[in-house]
């Protein structure tokens, strides 16, 4: 198959995946206005090319938190990759390493921090949710440190899971061949067997909805790894992240999967 444009992957995925799994990956929250806007906003940003410049030597390398990477493109955390392919996060980790860039592993991955680490060398960050049971957070932090992860990405825009109507309609369940590998042995097996609405209720019950900026400081007392705050869309929250000692921020609307009718991330970037 001769793929010439990254957008072609979406059409191929629609052919190969079940509707439930495709919709899980492809859909956004509520009316999906922000999902469409995330893409449309980029199409409104135009190049202003300058001509007759020496481009014989091009260097895309950059530095993120002291780590040299080959290009200013990294892999964002996405859950349950083995629903799409048996290799799942293993393949993503290997590809990121070969490409010379950073992979961020989702807490809700279908491969554990240890399994991803076993694929070989690479610069990896761990995306983290804060649960009411803080011991779960501490355990995962220790495991990430031991597995050689280099930073923690705190998702800060998810006191509850966004209302993803496609998954509700599909009554989505976790396929039998997929597990939440970072939480094996933590009594979350009931999540595997519930439909989407029940699963959402269970996960919402796990998330600590009292999370505030003081918890960014608290996380820094648990680990020497840098803390990056993900989900920032405003200048106000950028200032608070800096004040809280965050090592970095990720401008994100959670792929439009959390709160609909928020700006496209590329539109929020200038203010941030």
From TrEMBL:
Subcellular location: Peroxisome
Name of the protein in question: (S)-2-hydroxy-acid oxidase
PROSITE patterns in the cross-refs: FMN_HYDROXY_ACID_DH_1, FMN_HYDROXY_ACID_DH_2
Family: Belongs to the FMN-dependent alpha-hydroxy acid dehydrogenase family.
UniProt cross-references to Pfam families, sorted A to Z: FMN_dh (PF01070)
Cofactor: FMN
Entry keyword set: Flavoprotein, FMN, Glycolate pathway, Oxidoreductase, Peroxisome
Catalytic reaction(s) noted: glycolate + O2 = glyoxylate + H2O2
Domain annotation FMN hydroxy acid dehydrogenase: ranges: 1-272
Record bears the keyword Cell membrane: no
Record flagged with keyword Transit peptide: no
One annotated Gene Ontology cellular component of this protein: peroxisome
């Amino acid at each position: 198959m001769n793929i010439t444009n990254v957008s072609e992957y979406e059409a191929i995925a629609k052919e190969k995946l079940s509707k439930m799994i495709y919709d899980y990956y492809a859909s956004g929250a509520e009316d999906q206005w922000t999902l469409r806007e995330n893409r449309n906003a980029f199409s409104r940003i135009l190049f202003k090319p300058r001509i007759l410049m020496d481009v014989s030597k091009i260097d895309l390398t950059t530095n993120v938190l002291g780590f040299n990477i080959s290009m200013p493109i990294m892999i964002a955390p996405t859950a349950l990759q083995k629903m799409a392919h048996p290799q799942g996060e293993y393949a993503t980790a290997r590809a990121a390493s070969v490409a010379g860039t950073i992979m961020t592993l989702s807490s809700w991955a279908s491969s554990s921090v240890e399994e991803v680490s076993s694929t070989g060398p690479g610069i990896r960050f761990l995306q983290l949710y804060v649960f009411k049971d803080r011991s779960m957070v501490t355990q995962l932090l220790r495991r990430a440190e031991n597995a050689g992860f280099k930073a923690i990405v705190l998702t800060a825009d998810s006191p509850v899971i966004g209302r993803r109507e496609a998954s509700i309609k599909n009554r989505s369940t976790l396929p039998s061949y997929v597990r939440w590998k970072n939480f094996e042995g933590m009594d979350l097996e009931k999540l595997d067997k519930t439909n989407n609405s029940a699963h959402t209720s269970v996960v919402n019950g796990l998330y600590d909805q009292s999370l505030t900026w003081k918890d960014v400081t608290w996380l820094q007392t648990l680990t020497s790894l840098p803390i990056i705050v993900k989900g920032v869309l405003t200048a106000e929250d950028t200032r608070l992240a800096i004040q809280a000692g965050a090592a970095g921020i990720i401008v994100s609307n959670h792929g439009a999967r959390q709160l609909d009718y928020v700006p496209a991330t590329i539109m929020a970037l200038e203010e941030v």
